[in-house]
Amino acid sequence: MRSARSALIVPVTAVTLILAAPSARAGTITIDFDLTGSSIALLGGILNIPPDGSITAASAQVTVQGSDLTNASAGAAHLGNLMLTATINGTVGSAVLLTGGFSANQVGGGAGALSSGLANLNVAALTLNVNGLVNCFGGLCPALGTFPISAVNSLSVLTGIGSMGIGGLGTLSAATLNGILSLTIGGNTAVLSLVGQEVNRTYIPEPNTFALVGLGVLGLAGLGWRRTRPR
C-alpha cells in the first residue's frame, strides 16, 4: 500500500511542475496580411495607382520563428505568398488616357530575418511573376513611352530589397507591414509601396522544457503505479 501511495505523489508533483512552468514564448507565428492599401507608381510617377486605378486584391504571409516572440528578440523569418492585382484607369492632363491592369505573384524566395525589437523584416531576395498591359490613348503618348506596355509571365527578380517595417507583432490583430519594392513591368520600372494590415494569425509554440520534463515524469510514474498497484 505504501508503494502505491508513493507512486501517486510523483504524478501530482509533475502536474505541479507543468502548471508552475512559465508560458512558452518561443515558437512560430504566421501572419496573413491584407495589402490592398498599397500603391504603385509607374512611368516615373506619372501614373499612380490609386488614384489612377485601384489595387483589387493583394496579400502576403509572414512566418517568424523566434526564441522570444513577445519581447525583444526574434529569429528566422520568411515572406511568402505575396500577390496583387491592379486595374489602371488614369489620365495625364486632358489629352492622355491610360488603361489596363497587371498582376504579380511571388515565386519562391522570401527568406530573411526579423530584427531584435521585432522592428524590421530583412529579406534578401524576392522573385515576382508579372503579367500586365498598359494602353495609352492620345497625342502625347509617344512622349511618355512605348505603348502598349506589356508583360507576360515576366520574372522580376528583386535582390537586396532591404527592410520591411513590421509593427504590432506582439499584439493579436494589430500587426502591420510596410515596405518599398521596385519591379519591372514590360521593361519599365514600377515602385510598389506595400502597406499591410493583419487579418489572420496562427501560433505554434515550441514545447516548454519544464513541461516536457513533467510529462516524462508523469509517464514514468504511471508505469511505476501499474507495476506496484495491489492485485
Task: Write up this protein.
β7 (111-114) and β8 form a beta hairpin. It is built from 3 helices and 11 strands, in the order αββββββββαβββα. The chain has 231 residues and is of the alpha+beta class. α1 packs antiparallel against α3 (209-228). The longest helix has 20 residues, at 209-228. 19% of the residues lie in helices and 56% in strands.
- CATH topology call of the largest domain: Porin
Main pleated-sheet profile: 11 strands, antiparallel
What is the N-to-C succession of helices and strands?
HEEEEEEEEHEEEH
CATH C-level class of the largest domain is Mainly Beta
3D shape: elongated
Gyration radius (Cα, Å) is: 27 Å
Terminal Cα span = 11 Å
**What number is the mean pLDDT?**
81
CATH architecture call of the largest domain: Beta Barrel
* Global structural class: alpha+beta
Helix proportion of residues, in percent?
10-25%
Count of discrete structural domains: 2
Query: Would you count the extended β strands for me?
Result: 11
Q: Can you count the helices?
A: 3
- Report the sheet-strand fraction: over 45%
